[in-house]
C-alpha cells in the first residue's frame, strides 16, 4: 500500500516567523515527496506573483512572454536544485559536522523552506510598485 503524501500548509507561516519551532515539528514527519511537491507548488505560486506583477506594472507584452517562460522553467529547475542542494547539505552535515546525513529528511525540510520564494516575490513586487 502506497503512503499518502500530506502537505502541511499550516506550518508555512510558522516557518516564516519561528523557523526553529517549525523545522523541529517537520523533522519528525516530513517526507521527501512532501518536500519536492511543496517546492513545485510554492515555486509556481511565486512565479505567478512575479508574472502578474509584471502585467500590473506595465512590462511590455513581448517581455512578459520571455519572463513567464523563464520563470516556468525556473519552477522545474527549483525542484532539481532543492534535490541536489539537499543531498549536498546532508553529505556535508554527515561528514563535517557528524550529523545524520539524512538526504530524504534534508530535502523535505528544504522543500518546505521554499515558502521564502513567495515572500521574496511579494516583497519584490511591493518594492517595484513603491519605486515607480
Query: DSSP helix count?
Result: 6
Q: Quickly give the structural class.
A: mainly alpha
Uncertain runs: none
Main β-sheet description: none
The share of residues in extended strands comes to under 5%
The separation of the N and C termini measures 55 Å
The ordered string of helix (H) and strand (E) elements is: HHHHHH
Shape: elongated
Mean pLDDT over all positions = 86
Q: Kindly provide the radius of gyration, computed on alpha-carbon positions and rounded to a whole number of angstroms.
A: 17 Å
Explained architecture:
- This protein is mostly helical.
- It has helices at residues 12-17, 19-29, 32-56, 61-95, 103-112, 115-130.
- The protein has one domain.
- It is 78% helix and 0% strand.
- The longest helix has 35 residues, at 61-95.
- The radius of gyration is 17 Å and the shape is elongated.
Write the layout of secondary structure elements.
Elements: H1 12-17, H2 19-29, H3 32-56, H4 61-95, H5 103-112, H6 115-130
Observed structural traits:
132 residues, mainly alpha, 78% helix, elongated
Summarize the model shown:
By secondary structure, this protein is an all-alpha fold.
